[in-house]
Structure to design on (538 residues):
């Protein structure tokens, strides 16, 4: 979300065309989205595939910079294709997927308006945090779900979740609230807990998220579920605007950027 | 299933106690269930953990020998614990899970009657074959689902599935029908196709399965779904009792031994 509505939109250079893409990746194989000097990042991996196909560097801008280990099922990004890139988009998508490691895929690639911006234009994002809640971890879920052995009190977690809904200063739920944000106020449109057998999904829809905010919300709800903190404490923690050890950050492996919304919000998660 | 009801049941040696366990594993990390001279097998991995905990060799007998790459969510096995193994079962289960790689887990471990046999006493097994049916493979499903790009005709697949139900000679759906079975007649109690978004599950319940039979059934249904063969051909293929190129073996990664039934069959899959 663009917190400043006057952020200038920069169109593609003359002759270039802007495209938008939906991406999925297995975060276990990457040190996060953002290009970095050392490490495999999703951004650098994608940009290398674009460069190899088109012969010139292409910058890919994502809606959100996922952290090391965090997955994506619906990350959205934009890029400007140079004038020389005459390849039709379906062929370009196929070419990218053929070059990419199987831990990253371009799920869709389509034309965007010249001023489309994957981050500024996003109305909201949905994240899903997955928990395998059983006495024993499950080998087939170990890469995409955090294992919690103790039984979880779902009604207590839902009571705490309800207190987080709406517009609040979420500084107490950010790992480093003043890192790069001028404001720590965000709006959670929905926060629901869906349980199918031992698999619990914490689904969060919000207009924007602070650094490690979803993992902090998940960590807090899990503490509430284990009765380490009463649900009613949630409001006091929010109001403190201070990040303390009362809020835990749940591990990256359970988190997935599920979808980004540009035109309207979903009616349910 | 014990095809010969007079197969002798051998009780544990004096002082030993028989246990049964439910196992889950990520087949991608193993060359199958069965202990082999070279290779990591699930059986050898488990037996090594038992031996390390108890100080003596323990043989683990599974209901079914899954192939290389095939997963399990509910493999069932039995073993005889030596008289010296005084550890309570919950502690033994925890110890095993602490020693095992995270690609294998003992989901439950409990006492069994002295004549219980994981293979001979099984009434039926359920396998699930997973297909990610979308133009692009999904990084988070690539380890546990076979990717099929082409749209699939589900009604045609269901029509073919119905022709496979019941008791038949399944020689045409076995990779090597005469490898170790005296009879190639088996009974499929249920065969249902469940689709959730791009994820298709072929769920099969049968009294027993020939070598690569589930993957052959999945491969055949997928050919029917792509209109490579009409559903009505299914009966002719069955009746031929000959394995030919008309039946494909679907890749191992999509297959999972979902559950073994010992007392009664499930009312639905």
């Amino acid at each position: 979300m663009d917190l400043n509505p006057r952020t200038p939109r920069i169109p593609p250079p003359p002759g270039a065309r802007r495209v938008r893409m939906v991406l999925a990746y297995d975060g276990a194989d990457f040190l996060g989205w953002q290009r970095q000097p050392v490490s495999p990042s999703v951004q650098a991996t994608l940009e290398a595939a674009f460069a190899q196909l088109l012969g010139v560097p292409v910058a890919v801008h994502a809606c959100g910079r996922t952290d090391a280990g965090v997955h994506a099922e619906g990350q959205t990004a934009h890029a400007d294709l140079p004038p020389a890139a005459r390849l039709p988009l379906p062929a370009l998508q196929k070419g990218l997927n053929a070059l990419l490691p199987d831990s990253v895929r371009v799920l869709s690639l389509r034309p965007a308006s010249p001023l489309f911006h994957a981050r500024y234009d996003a109305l909201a994002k949905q994240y899903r945090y997955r928990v395998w809640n059983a006495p024993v971890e499950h080998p087939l879920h170990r890469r995409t779900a955090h294992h919690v052995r103790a039984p979880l009190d779902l009604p207590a977690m839902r009571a705490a979740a309800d207190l987080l809904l709406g517009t609040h200063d979420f500084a107490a739920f950010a790992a480093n609230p003043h890192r790069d944000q001028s404001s720590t106020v965000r709006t959670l449109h929905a926060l629901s807990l869906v349980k199918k057998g031992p698999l619990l999904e914490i689904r969060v829809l919000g207009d924007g998220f602070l650094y490690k905010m979803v993992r902090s919300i998940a960590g807090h709800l899990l503490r509430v579920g284990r009765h380490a903190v009463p649900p009613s404490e949630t409001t006091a923690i929010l109001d403190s605007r201070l990040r303390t050890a009362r809020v835990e950050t749940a591990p990256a492996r359970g988190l997935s950027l599920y979808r980004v919304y540009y035109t309207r919000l979903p009616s349910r998660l």
